[in-house]
Write a structure and sequence with these properties.
This protein is mainly beta and 134 residues long. The protein is built from one helix and eight strands; from the N terminus they run E-E-E-E-H-E-E-E-E. Strands 1-2-6-7-8-5 form a six-stranded antiparallel sheet, with helices on one face. The relative contact order is 0.21.
Length: 134
């Protein structure tokens, strides 16, 4: 990550200083953003199933972090998610995001969440981000 990138220590998804955040640490290889995340009891929706909003947050941030790691300011314009399998509390998950296309100020990305144990797709998304003009 560039030294010029504005820090986001209180980000709910990736902020390492946020005491109630997910504290996901993202890795970026220049093209693909990845992370490992294990939801806990604070992330429950129903019984031992992870709340869909937590899964959405993880997907939104694995795609947003591509822009962040590139030093480009952008915001989510739209994110369409498809839940395919439930995620369980304590079950390790793998996150992955990548850019599909770019058109002027609009960047189209895809993301996915897979169970680490068997690589089964839990959820995926198609997102669009608008690049800030500032």
């Amino acid at each position: 990550m560039s030294d010029e990138i504005e820090a986001a220590p209180m980000c709910f998804a990736c902020g390492q200083d946020n005491p109630i955040g997910l504290r996901i640490y993202f890795h970026f290889d220049g093209e693909v953003c990845t992370a490992d995340f294990t939801p806990n009891q604070n992330h429950v929706g129903f019984q031992d199933t992870v709340h869909g909003g937590i899964i959405y947050t993880a997907l939104d941030d694995v795609t947003a972090n591509i822009m962040y790691q590139q030093g480009r300011k952008a915001h989510t314009a739209r994110c369409e998610i498809r839940y395919r399998q439930p995620a369980r509390v304590g079950e390790a998950l793998k996150l992955k995001g990548w850019i599909e296309t770019e058109r002027r100020r609009l960047v189209l990305l895809k993301g996915e969440v897979r169970r680490a144990s068997d690589d089964v797709l839990v959820a995926d998304c198609e997102s669009s981000f608008m690049l800030d003009q500032s």
